[in-house]
Every structure is written in structure tokens, then in C-alpha cells.
Amino acid sequence: MESDFSKKLDKFSNKINGYLNNLNYKSNTPMKLQSDTHANFAPAVWILGVLYTPSHHLSDGINDFMDHNGTNLMSDISSRFWFTYRQNFPGIQVARKSQENIKTADTGWGCCIRVTQMFVAQMLVLKLMGRSWRKESGEIDVKKLRCRVKDCRWIYQSILEMFLDLPGQAFSIHTISELISRELNSENWQPGDWIGPATAANIIKHGIYLANSSCTLGLQLDDIRVYIARDALIDPSEVYPESRLDQQDDDFVVVLIPLRLGANEFNMEYKNCVLKLFCFDNFLGIIGGKPKKSFYFIGAQGDDLIYLDPHFTQKAFNSTDEVDFDTYHCNKPKTVNISKMDPTCTIGFVFRAKKEFEDFQRLCEDSKLFHREVEKAGSCKFSCPMVAFGKRQDSSRTRLYTENDMCVIEDDFEVDENTPTEDVGYVLL
Q1: Rounded to an integer, what distance in angstroms lies between the CA atom of residue 314 and that of residue 328?
Q2: How far apart are CA 426 and CA 94, in angstroms?
Q3: pTM here?
């Protein structure tokens, strides 16, 4: 009797929380793009490597932006997978006695998990359908993709099914919660607790490994490798290690980079570094947000970031046969000024071949693409990388450490075995 009452109370609580959450979601300002004026042209919009500019023929601000093929901006945004809070899914066991034993909704605690799902889904779309895929057309360029299946609709449904809120699905909230529980076992993490972007990077790596071993027939996922760049340092010898016998130079490699770009607030000296990320078509976006709110950042216009917001509660589907596909795509993206971005985030890139990675590294190093200029003592300026390439055990590298949220570089520094590890990082964390 008591158990039935507890279940009813939990179900009622989920409905109330979902209702209040959706009121808050709808009250937030939707995406507002800068439009042309009599004095100035509107800044271009970048969505994960695709450039959109005003067509000067339409009046609607959002629909006024087109790419070089004449494709509408919203067609791109609404084609990204959008995962939000869900309720009434099969229960997730909670071991902690101070909480209810079963979680059937993730409202209030699952936002970073949902953003992680969106991030992984974009990874799979790039691999299996390509950046030019759009939901309404369903067309893919099979010549550029190494996928054994040419039925785009089947691929699309197969990707989505991996994320449904059902036990056993590769990237369901049930599977991800189990992975987090193992990852944060020492911290006694339980469903109902929050996670951050750095934890999300580790979960992606473990999740891809599991998906490789149980991938859907016909989807080639076994050549996906995930590399996490600790301390914002990308070591090419770790990305493509020569010692791996099973490695191929055309493996699909995902590089994840957890970052902390400021102390308590986003350091605006990193602004241009972050905005440049969206110019790359192999960029996966940003797992980030505002303090205690996770968003999936997919684009930018000027100093504003465009994001998909998971803080909207919808019903879960208990069968793959009853899925409403439209509820997994967003027609109301949002924007926020980059200054309000939480400094903790995880960014990611995909590389389809070793040469593509080497070209990217060369571009970053030659152009200092992700460097910021830091002024110290009012006169001297130092070039500080947000992301660096190098050998993790390179004893002759430049010393770079933080001092009052400023990067300080000292040349001709050799790492000593007695030097604290926090003093030899490459970037402000």
C-alpha cells in the first residue's frame, strides 16, 4: 500500500515539476538574430561549420539567412537532434536511501546528460549521414561516407533509437546513468544528481566503446575512437599511436577537450577563440551552458551563441513503434551572449583520417588560431593558447601557468620531477 502511494506521489511530483519547468522554458527569450538595418549589414551566422548570410529578399529575421546552396538556417538547426527532459520512462534504480528508489523522470537533474546525447548524436550524424544531411530532404552523399547502408531514413531512425529512454539502448538515459555511476563511484553519484562537462567527456568515451561492441547491424561504428585531451593538450602521438596494431589511418577519431576558460566567470579574452570554433565543419559543438544549466551550443552570430535547450519536459516513449520523431527536433533555438557562458565546458572535433588531423594541427599552429593575447604588467603581451599541441612528456617545452586568472609564460623551462604538475599545464584551467 505504501509502495503504491509512493509511486503515485512520485508520478504527481513529476507532472508538477514538468509543468513548472515548461512554463520557465517558454518564458525564456527565443533566438533573436541581428538583422540588416539601413546603416549596417547583419553579422553572418555560423552553425557547426556552415555559413549563413542574409538573403536580403525576405523579411523574417530567422528565415532571412541562407547558406551558399540557398538552404534555410532553420532547416539546419531543426535537423540537429534535440534531447530534452522526459517523464514516465522505465524506472532507474537509485541506491541512496535519502532519495526515492526509482527515477521515472529527469527534470531538474538530467540536462547535462541530454546535452551529451545531442553531442553524441551529432557525431553519429557526421559519420553516417554527413554534415549536409537535412531532416526534411533525407539526402546523404554516400560517396563521401563509409556506410554500408544507403537508406537514409533507416539510418536516421537507427540513430534516434540509440537514445530512446529505454533500458538497453546504447545512449539512453538508463545506460548513461549507469556509466556515470561507475565513473563517479567514489563520489557516490546517483540518478538525481547533476554532472558537469568534464564528466560528460569520459562518459562519451565509455559509451562509444559499448556502442562499438553492440552496434546495430549495418551501422559501421567499430572504427570510432575517442581521445580526451587532458589539460587542453593534444598529443598527436596519443591521437594516432604507432603502437596500436588495429589502428587505421582512416579511422573516425573524436577529439574531446574539457576546458575551464576562467575562474568563476567566462574570461572574455577567450571570446574570439570560442567563436572561431563554429567555423569548422568537423566541429561537434560545445557541452556547456550557464551556471547549473547545461546547453548544447551549436552556432554563433556576433558575440551571441546559439544553443539547443534541454530544459523542456516531454513524455517518454515506451516502444520504438510509437515514437513521435518531431519531438526530437527543435524549432525554437535560443541565444545568449558569450559573456554569460559558464567557463567550464567540453568541445569536440571529428577527424576522418590522419591527414585531416595533421592539416588541422598545422593550421592551428601556423595561424595561432586558438591563441589569445594576454597583457601583463601593463606592457608585455604573451600569446596564450586555449588548446595546444605537443608531447605530454616533452621536457623542453615552454612553462605556462596561471596567476590570478592570467596566463604567464616562461621560456627555457625544463620540467623537473619535483615540479608540481599544476604548474606545467599548457592552458588556463
Answers
A1: 10
A2: 39
A3: 0.84
